[in-house]
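Hi team,

Filling in the usual template for the complex we talked about on Friday. All components are listed, including any nucleic acid strands or ligand strings, so the model treats them as one assembly.

SUBMITTER: L.P.
PURPOSE: interface mapping
COMPONENTS: two
RESIDUES: 845
SEQUENCES:
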Amino acid sequence: MSGNRTIRVTGGILLAVAVLALVGPWVSPHDYATTNLDRILASPSLGDLHFFGTDDLGRDLFVRTMLGIRVTLLVAIVASLVSLVIGVAYGAIAGFVGGRIDAAMMRFVDTLYALPFIFFVILLMVAFERNFFLIFVAIGAINWLDMARIVRGQTLSLREQAFVEAARLTGLSMPRIVFRHIAPNLIGIVVVYVTLTIPQAILVESFLSFLGLGVQEPQTSLGALVDAGVKQMERASWALLVPATLLALVLMCFNFLGDGLRDFFDARHSS
Amino acid sequence: MSLLDVQGLTIRYGEETVVDGVDLFIERGESVGLVGESGSGKSQSALAVLGLLPPQADVSGSIEFDGQQILGADEHVLDTLRARRISMVFQDPMQALNPYLRIGAQLRQILLRHGLAEKAEAGAQVLEMLGKVGLPDPERQYRAYPHELSGGMRQRVMLASALIAEPDLLIADEPTTALDVTVQAQILDLLEDVRDNTALLLITHDLGVVAGHCEHMIVLDRGRLVEQGQTTSVFAAPAHTHTRTLLAAAPRVDKGEVPAAVKSSKILSVGEASVDYRDVRAVRDVSFSVGKGETVAIVGESGSGKSSLVRAMLGLVPMSSGRVVYAGENLDGVVEERAKSHCRDLQLVFQDPISALNPQMRVQTIVEEPLRVHEPQLSGPERRERVTTILERVGLSEKYLRRFPHQLSGGQAQRVAIARALVLEPRVLVCDEAVAALDGSVREQVLDVLRDVQADTGLSIIFISHDLAVVRSISHRVLVMYLGKLVEAADSGTLFAAPRHPYTRALLDSVPIPDPVVVPRRAPLRGEVPSPANPPPGCVFHPRCPQATAKCGDKAPVMRDVSGSRVACHHPNS
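RESULT (copied from the run log):
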């Protein structure tokens, strides 16, 4: 039952962070884009409601951090969902149909794996200008490959299970076997893998933003905030520490959540 | 002083006690059988003696080996003890051998690491040992990797590595359970021949093995020792009820009632069926038929094609040639291409009940699914009524409806699988090793369910098994397969009394008999079943056949009548 506690604790923290990110900017009197050149790099204080201080343009860091969390979570969740939908459909079809179609589909995946990712992203940026939407595309484009491979492998082994043969003997149609017998047995591994893809997507987004290829000003993300914070590290340590800590916290929670879910699904299978 | 003296051994995992106050002792050179069903704590006790239990096990009591306390001894002391004085053979030799090392290197390591031989002599000593355990061409096996050997040869290598240090005690945990019955007979003979002065602790669920090969026996039940003594006296006069239950549940291949032949009209027949998987010819031209209310057993060792035959018959795998006729109509192609009404009449029960049930579904959903497909007009309550009736039939009450498969024991899960197969009231039920994974007492209950259903509804059963003693107790007719071919078919009464084919005779002679009064026969066959990818020419059995002549290597025999049996052999026993 320790798995269950991990799920509750990490899930709770993530929920709290998400709620704070949604409600926070609404409560604060400041907004994320307004500069105030009188208050450049102010330290955190409760008096003027700059809870996390201000940045080098005098913008309120609390509101910007909340905005960054929103953007980071949004990118990560949308990118993971994209990879989930494409990866599960692609992998399940390849695994269930099998034979030559499977071989052809998986060689295509191998080909995509061979593309150098950063090079691919830079090409996208050059071709289509910098665009928020491109980040989803770029991250989704790499993550679904792993998902497709995992789902295909799982489907292949499920297809050979005795209970699928029993279903065939009963006279169940193919779609019914896939939906009633194969899909429910994929949920465990897919859910676990998605919770592990989210932190991966967060890292990739932060990495892109840190390189300046991600979200563009005045929009921001946790990665972009860390990038800005690094530049002010010696004068305003809070500008680095606050977003970096939150980034680490969110990543850690997602990783533990994935572990907890895996234990949870394992426990349902063995007595 | 005893060689091994265990007093009050208790093993706990948290709250759960798996071994509870077991006392046992073994004298030098003696052979002791440790018997019990799954979960009786027999393997745990053996691991405790070797000091190999996981760290979370809480062990108490006393284990003295040759006067020395092992329990709680230093790892270094245990290491030396395990290398030189106590060795172990496991059920699965593939897990115990290092797949990256050649056989010779693994055995040399044992000698060199513990200073049992000089570097120059170790190789010769290993070769001698490999010869002693009956490996053909020891020089070649010396250089082979474990995966190049067959299951029986690997187990011989394990025995060689266990005995090379000439230990005082050999612990063998189900050493022959994974092997075919003719190979099991060879390994058991070998165990007897090569151990010299080494005492043997043989852990097994098979009372036949104990009766033939152990002087003493110990019976465990749920972690407690319930009976111990001379094997002959325990078998002659079992004192504890659990021992009596075990003995009653151990079927005998050599005597006991055989179901009388059934005269009825044919319901299903298979003609000249062949099944191929790429280059493997799994089944070759097999024909047979099943009558109404008849139980036909198909027996044979691994690679005989018995499973492939019925899977092709049911349409789970395609048949390369041949036909299946059910109730006067041809069944063609795989199951998806067959008429729904035919599908519902032919059902299958699998060997491993747990993997045959979808882990995400409750018992009720599992059993009612066939009804949803074939009788969609049924209302919810009607369906539930049918499900509870069939569950009751197989001996499960309503409280199991809401359970998931992992909340069932092996026997309960197999009953659910049988209920799912029977809920559509099929005419033919195929049981593919359906009781092989079950403990003796549970197996009898499941067989009783099958017998009852057959008596009530006239169900025909095709019973695939490698266990001839079980087959004897349930089947009206027996088909014997070897390497994809049918070699003998006869009524049970005829086949068990007078086997005509030399292979059938050898199979019967290889089965251990749970009676110490019967002196076990020497293994009747040498070698192992060849690969079905490359079967021998002529009669497929001739390389192992004691009666083979030149003709057998040239010409494949056809099935013919020999005093009441159908036999494919040039020189049948008359």
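MY TAKE: Chain B has three domains: 1-85+169-248, 94-166, 266-355+427-567. The mean pLDDT of chain B is 90.

Thanks, L.
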